[in-house]
């Protein structure tokens, strides 16, 4: 059983819900949505996983809700709104380089505060949020209100996502004090360091961030080069990447964050937590899409009963 699940039973993905629309079809996504689906796949019946965000009253919105419920992710915190479900139009050139065009003013930009979100926040053991989800003014206010409403022992995980032009130094600086866990990748860390005037090696920068913002944990992912974790008491775990046949890296970082969350809640030793998160992310890289089904050998809890789909 996860250490905190009995008292504060919910693990929450908070923020954008969208579809990546490729020429050959749409793929479900959004970093917090990927996180929630991966957490549900990893936790099985050991924890309650929920999504908090917004979708439109349209085909993509209804399909998004089905995607969540089919993966045992609760949707009581997902508002159905009178604007389109989020989408990103993706084009890939002959060299394999992808270009992204985010639709403006979508449901995930306009999530209102609600009694359902207040209730969910009060029951939260861990919540993952990012910078992209704060693109719209109303969702920015709702995300921050949710973070301030969760119980003080809860994990508040900031997953930096610097999608130009949908971020600003102000959002980064205002989000960090709301978090007690930070996750970023090796492209994002130098930008964060420049904003906050940190210097030195990546490990030194992480340690400065841990100290300045009183973080429980800082996580740096480096793609094929592995990852590094630093705790509040100065412990460091640095692991090389696991060679795999990469099919798709979408969602690997979100799955890594979900695995770290579950390891922290289960009070696993740092090295065990890190090794498991690396295995999970490596597996996701071998699958297509950001929310692949998690195999039993990577799961922490028992597979949930399909008769108990969360709502």
Structure overview:
Helix content is 33%, strand content 24%. It has 311 residues and is α/β, with parallel strands linked by helices. The protein has one domain: UDP-N-acetylmuramoyl-L-alanine:D-glutamate ligase (3-Layer(aba) Sandwich), CATH 3.40.1190. The strands form 2 sheets. A 9-stranded mixed sheet has the order 5-4-1-8-9-10-11-12-13, with helices on both faces. A hairpin with a 5-residue loop joins strand 11 (217-221) and strand 12. The longest helix is centred in the C-terminal third of the chain and has 16 residues, at 270-285. The two termini are 21 Å apart. The relative contact order is 0.16. Mean pLDDT is 90; it is low at 3-8 and 306-311.
Comma- or semicolon-separated keywords:
311 residues, UDP-N-acetylmuramoyl-L-alanine:D-glutamate ligase, four-stranded mixed sheet, disordered N terminus
Largest sheet: 9 strands, mixed
- Tell me, rounded to a whole number, the average pLDDT: 90
List low-confidence stretches. 3-8, 306-311
Question: If you consult CATH, what is the topology?
Answer: UDP-N-acetylmuramoyl-L-alanine:D-glutamate ligase
Which CATH class applies here? Alpha Beta
Adjacency order of strands in the biggest sheet: 5-4-1-8-9-10-11-12-13
Through-space gap between termini? 21 Å
User: In which range does the helix fraction lie?
Assistant: 25-40%
């Amino acid at each position: 059983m996860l250490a905190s699940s009995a008292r504060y039973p919910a693990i929450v993905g908070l923020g954008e819900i969208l579809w990546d629309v490729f020429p050959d079809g749409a793929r479900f996504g959004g970093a917090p949505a990927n996180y929630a689906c991966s957490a549900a796949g990893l936790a099985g019946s050991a924890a309650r996983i929920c999504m908090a965000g917004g979708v439109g009253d349209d085909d993509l919105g209804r399909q998004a809700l089905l995607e969540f419920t089919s993966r045992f992710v609760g949707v009581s915190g997902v508002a159905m709104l009178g604007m389109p479900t989020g989408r990103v139009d993706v084009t890939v050139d002959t060299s394999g380089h992808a270009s992204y065009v985010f639709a403006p003013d979508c449901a995930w930009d306009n999530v209102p505060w609600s009694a359902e979100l207040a209730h969910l926040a009060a029951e939260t053991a861990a919540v993952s949020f990012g910078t992209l989800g704060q693109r719209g003014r109303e969702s920015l206010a709702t995300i921050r209100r949710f973070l301030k409403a969760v119980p003080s022992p809860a994990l508040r995980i900031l997953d930096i996502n610097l999608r130009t032009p949908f971020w600003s130094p102000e959002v980064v600086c205002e989000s960090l004090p709301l978090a007690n866990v930070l996750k970023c990748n090796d492209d994002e860390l130098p930008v964060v360091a420049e904003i906050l005037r940190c210097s030195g090696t990546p490990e030194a920068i992480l340690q400065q961030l841990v100290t300045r913002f009183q973080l429980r944990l800082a996580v740096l992912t480096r793609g094929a080069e592995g990852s590094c974790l630093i705790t509040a008491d100065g412990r460091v775990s640095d692991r090389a990447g696991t060679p795999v046949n990469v099919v798709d890296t979408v969602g690997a970082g979100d799955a890594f964050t979900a695995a770290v969350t579950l390891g922290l809640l289960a009070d696993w030793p740092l090295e065990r937590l890190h090794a498991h998160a690396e295995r999970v992310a490596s597996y996701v890289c071998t699958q297509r899409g950001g929310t692949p089904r998690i195999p039993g050998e990577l799961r922490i809890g028992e597979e949930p009963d399909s008769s108990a789909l969360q709502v």
